[in-house]
Amino acid sequence: MSQNHYSTKPKRRAKSGKRKDPSAATMARLRQLSAAEKKSAK
């Protein structure tokens, strides 16, 4: 067996419902900005 062979990965954090997805938040912000840009262009 190799040195780093474990049945569980200690560094991998379990997905928590409390922790919000950063990429989803980023995409929402981008959508918001593009919508504001379209509004100001008119």
How is this structure best described in words?
This protein is mainly α and 42 residues long. Helix content is 48%, strand content 0%. It is built from 1 helix and no strands. The termini are far apart. The model has no long low-confidence stretch (mean pLDDT 78).
Q: Give the low-confidence spans.
A: none
Helix content, binned percent: 40-55%
Mean pLDDT, rounded to whole units? Answer: 78
The arrangement of helices and strands along the chain is H
Distance between the termini: 65 Å
Total E-strand runs: 0
**Backbone structural class:** mainly alpha
Largest sheet: none
- What is the helix tally? 1
Radius of gyration: 20 Å
Strand content: under 5%
Principal-axis shape:
rod-shaped
Give the arrangement of secondary structure elements.
Blueprint: H1 22-41
Keywords:
single chain, 42 residues, mainly alpha, 1 helix
